Amino acid sequence: MLPDIAVLHSPEKGSLDIKICGLYALERNIILLHRAGIKMIYLHLKEPEIEFYRNNIKKHLKRISLAVKEALIPPPETTQAIYLSANCFLQAHHLSQADAYFTRKKNAWLIAYGTDIFDIASTSDALRAEEILIQTIRNNTPGFIARNINKAISLPISRALSRTRIHPNVLTVLNMIVGFSSAVFLSLNTYASIVIGGLCFQLASVFDGVDGEVAKLTLKVSKLGGWLDTISDNGTLILFLTASSYLFFLNSTTVYLPLAAIALLFAGLFIMLAAMISFLRKHTTSGSLVTYDKEFLQRLPDTDGLVSFIHKLKYYTKKEFFSLAFFAICLTGKIHYIVPAGAVILIAASIMLLVLNHRYRDFTVTPN
Description:
By secondary structure, the chain is of the alpha/beta class. It is 61% helix and 9% strand. The radius of gyration is 25 Å and the shape is elongated.
């Protein structure tokens, strides 16, 4: 268990004015230490460095700055504390797995430098740190399309945007506009507008990663951001399916059969979303539907036949797959055909999730 105190001392080489994805190394370290549960952070810095902190960093920390003490004198040697160079490059897992990355010397906890832990003494060091952060995101991305296609587009954009200090929630709203516009183009009911609508839907899927990536790179992950992302994703899907249903109705020769298919489509979708959101509200503090998969579905026993079946089909229900499939269908001009097929799939999926939620209603989320 980490001590409650950390001391950030002056770097042996380099300065504090080099940024990693828009954040100064000192700024990143304060945020990471605070999130790791450190209650008091001493800045054992030279006077010019303290002044730099006051003028350039403190204003960005908001309430976290209350846990920072500007002290030229460190705490007594009898006090257990983490000792770090102010410009050391850290990641969250270095603190969550402290036994693997820190050594003890009396009461001092000292970081063990290595290939992914080093001081930011030059611009090349900052670029190296950014590459490590980018690669970490890519390596932790499941799914072939998301990892090898979507991330190849979104990560360079996210890296550039992270340097502007733009808030991830702003990017979520912008992506929401792109996604919602897909339904507008579909409803115009021309071949060109249907193709553009499918393209906007696919772009929204690709750019959906940008806000989350910027949040991770700039350490601005929040519950509000998770809920906004959920609203964006599912709002885009609902509007796209609404526009597709409108086209399905226009292209049908009867009235009751298309209405029945449309009703089943949206009933299945809303039941499925309600099942996932209900779980999130009851068992987690997250607003992201990704958490439902990571914290619930992935932790259920594969010995359960239903769980095993869902795992086998799960990839085909992911946005990275069906957004590309929808775009491909839009290229044929026949996107309305997804309505009857989607109705069958969503009703089946909603029933399976309801069964799982009931079967594992006493499930308890435990940290990884």
